[in-house]
Write a structure and sequence with these properties.
The chain is an alpha/beta fold. It has one domain (12-270). 37% of the residues lie in helices and 15% in strands. The strands form 2 sheets. It has a 7-stranded mixed sheet, with helices on both faces. Strands 8-9 form a two-stranded antiparallel sheet. β3, α5 and β4 form a beta-alpha-beta unit. The longest helix is centred in the N-terminal third of the chain and has 28 residues, at 25-52.
């Protein structure tokens, strides 16, 4: 495995559980049709909206992705522990753990910003074109030399006064465990003098039990994952906005990445006995620093 193409140990067979209740076939078909309609509307409207709406494009984007999540039967719950409104404007690098392609919709519903995605997403049917039209920054992970340019592009977004969104694990994990935050794109925040805003993403079923059904891991494909999501009843996506790490709080990008990862893991895992995560790059086990009070409600 190359550090330029991070991969995790999660697989659909070992990590993706079954929902407590499944939706009937008519509801699944309705959800798929509704999702397709929302995506196509975004694809058609993105160019004129970005050209003519200006700053008003941001709330329109938020409405679009919320409609997409609702069409799929996903309820969004936002816990704002950041000390500021989730919709606040201004440059910041928002970083979150990565579980599913759904994360992209959810983050944009809460804090819309220029998204970083792997280059493969640009070739996904319908979704890839919509992502490109909404200004996604694509990173070709097969070309290590492309990394500095992508970092510079994200830094340019921040210097221009806008937020940028990065999933620094570099790949998806099942949600029951997480991977190490790669430091590369934290350099963009340092170069632009922008704060870093950690966000924790987690999924639950209606009864409150953690859910791994939305996970997009291993050799999973988009169609199979989408079929699982529309089949779930009572899926709740929780997004926890955390206090920003201000410019100058970390000496370098590695220290900044470690601080952001600790903040996210405090929310995701109140019990350190359940969070011994192997680092696939360094081949060693990391035990995050956590607080027993964090993540409980």
């Amino acid at each position: 495995m190359s550090v330029w193409r991070p991969s995790g140990p999660c697989t659909t067979r070992e990590c993706v559980g079954s929902p407590d209740r499944s939706a009937g076939v008519p509801r699944r078909v309705l959800r798929l049709a509704g999702c397709l309609a929302v995506v196509m509307a975004g694809l058609l409207l993105a160019p004129p909206v970005r050209r003519w709406a200006g700053a008003r494009a941001v709330p329109l984007l938020r409405v679009w992705v919320r409609l997409g999540a609702a069409a799929l039967g996903v309820r969004i719950r936002v816990l704002d522990l950041s000390g500021r409104a989730a919709a606040a404007d201004g440059p910041e690098l928002l970083v979150a753990n990565h579980v599913s392609w759904l994360d992209v919709l959810l983050v944009q519903a809460v804090r819309p910003g220029r998204m970083l995605a792997k280059a493969e997403v640009a070739h996904w049917p319908v979704v890839g074109r919509a992502a490109g039209r909404w200004g996604t920054v694509f990173l070709d992970r097969e070309r290590p030399r492309a990394l500095p340019g992508a970092v510079a592009e994200v830094a340019g977004v921040l210097r221009g006064g806008g937020p940028a969104v990065v999933f620094p694990e570099g790949t998806t994990w099942c949600g029951a465990r997480t991977g190490p935050f790669r430091a590369a794109f934290f350099q963009a925040a340092l170069d632009a003098g922008a704060p870093v805003r950690p966000m924790a993403v987690r999924y639950r079923l209606a009864g409150g039990r953690p859910a791994t059904v939305p996970a997009f891991v291993g050799d999973d494909d988009l169609v199979a994952s989408l079929r699982r999501v529309v089949a779930v009843r009572g899926l709740v996506a929780e997004l926890v906005l955390l206090p920003a790490i201000p410019p100058g709080a970390a000496a370098d990008r590695r220290e900044l990445a470690a601080a952001a990862q600790r903040a996210v893991e405090r929310v995701l895992s109140p019990d350190p006995r359940h969070r011994r995560v192997p680092d696939p790059v360094r081949g060693r086990v990391r035990t995050p620093v956590v607080s027993a009070a964090d993540g409980r409600r």
